[in-house]
Design goal:
Layout: E1 7-10, H1 15-26, E2 32-33, H2 45-55, E3 59-62, H3 70-75, H4 77-97, E4 102-106, H5 135-155, E5 158-164, E6 166-168, H6 181-195, E7 199-203, E8 209-210, E9 212-214, H7 215-227, E10 233-237, E11 243-244, H8 245-256, E12 261-265, H9 280-285, H10 293-308
Parallel strand pairs: 1-2, 1-3, 3-4, 4-5, 5-10, 6-9, 7-12
Antiparallel strand pairs: 8-11
Helix pairs in contact: 1-7, 2-4, 4-5, 6-8, 8-10
The structure holds guanosine-5'-diphosphate (GDP).
Length: about 325
């Protein structure tokens, strides 16, 4: 990819978008274009069209989305399907109208069926029913990747879709009602330690298995795909290893230094039993994740304390 390319990172304040901006800066791409939500509402199609007509964008990285953990997805499916469909439709169509040739769309491993053979290969898409706790979000993300495929076929664009596994890292959401499991447990363990609590509550049974990718690895994979001139297709992005939620909780307690018990709250959903991605498609091209979970958890915990500890109640401040 030309170093002078004008690259629009949609969603640059989110965890994925901000990782992309950091990586692009580190790799020496000077022409990165961003807009805050106040400057450009991606739900407003006319505004998105005007933006693309004015800005002469060469590459779009579409990381803007409504995202959330299992409870947010299960309780607000209308927002998750509507906002994601509208954002991706507006951005992809406006990019095509403005003759943007290259675009990377970010989805999620929850697009794959609930009872999927493991590890999950890209071709298992749409082979059986989805996990009900996040089917609305998944349908929106499947629509986004199908938009890319359809536009490539009809209009000769080069729109690629990356499907990362569960992500974590800087600028994650630590709100306990809407976050994913890893940031939620980091925060709970931190607060439990500061409070001297006897136990920490983990939702569900602790038996579901998940895979965790540091968002800086996703940013690296994105640059890899762009720099290797990949022109179409769907690519899983993961580390190729998973662990149970119980094991994750134990690992987090160790990093945080919380020595109490784990309590499991069976009233909360488990979600899909397992979603380990088969990452051989990108591996065959020469890309693999580099940040191990132990290292990633330690750096993420340090960032969490630096960014959030000051906003915790005074009783919780170390
Ligand atoms: P999912 O991968 O789409 O299911 O999303 P999450 O990251 O929200 O949840 C993953 C698994 O972790 C589910 O089985 C949750 O029930 C479990 N889990 C355990 N404790 C928590 C918690 O405090 N917050 C969240 N979001 N999930 C938790």
């Amino acid at each position: 990819m030309n170093k002078q390319a004008r690259i629009f990172v949609a969603g640059h304040r989110g965890m994925v978008g901000s990782a992309l901006v950091r990586r692009l800066a580190a790799e020496g791409y000077p022409n990165v274009v961003t807009r805050s939500r106040a400057e450009l509402d991606l739900m407003d199609q006319a505004a998105v069209n005007r933006f693309f007509e004015a800005e002469r964008i060469d590459v779009v990285l579409l990381a803007a989305a409504r995202v959330g953990g299992i409870l947010a997805n299960a309780s607000r499916p209308g927002e998750f399907i509507y906002e994601n469909l509208v954002i991706e439709t507006n951005v992809i169509h406006a990019a095509y109208r403005a003759r943007v040739e290259r675009l990377v769309f970010f989805g999620s491993s929850c697009i794959y069926p609930k009872q999927c053979p493991q590890p999950i290969r890209e071709e298992y898409l749409l082979t059986s029913p989805l996990e009900p706790t996040n089917d609305a979000y998944a349908i929106a993300k499947i629509a986004g990747l199908k938009l890319c495929e359809a536009y490539n076929r009809e209009y000769n664009t080069q729109y690629v879709a990356l499907m990362p596994t569960n992500l974590y890292g800087p600028n994650d959401n630590y709100d306990l009602n809407s976050s994913h499991v890893l940031p939620a447990l980091l925060r709970k363990a931190h607060e439990a330690r500061l409070n001297g609590a006897a136990s920490l509550t983990v939702w569900g049974s602790g038996t579901p298995r998940r895979e965790f990718l540091h968002v800086d690895d996703l940013a690296a994979a994105t640059l890899f795909v762009l720099e290797h001139n990949v022109t179409e297709g769907l690519f899983n992005v993961g580390v190729g290893e998973d662990l149970s939620i119980r094991e994750l909780a134990e690992g987090i307690c160790k990093v945080v230094g919380f020595e109490g018990e784990l309590a499991f709250d069976a009233s909360k959903p488990d979600g899909t039993p397992r979603k380990l991605l088969d990452v051989s498609r990108l591996a065959q091209m020469g890309w693999r994740a580099r940040i191990g979970l132990a290292e990633g958890l330690a750096s993420t915990y340090r960032q969490f304390v630096a960014a959030h500890a000051g906003s915790l109640p005074a009783t919780l401040q170390a």
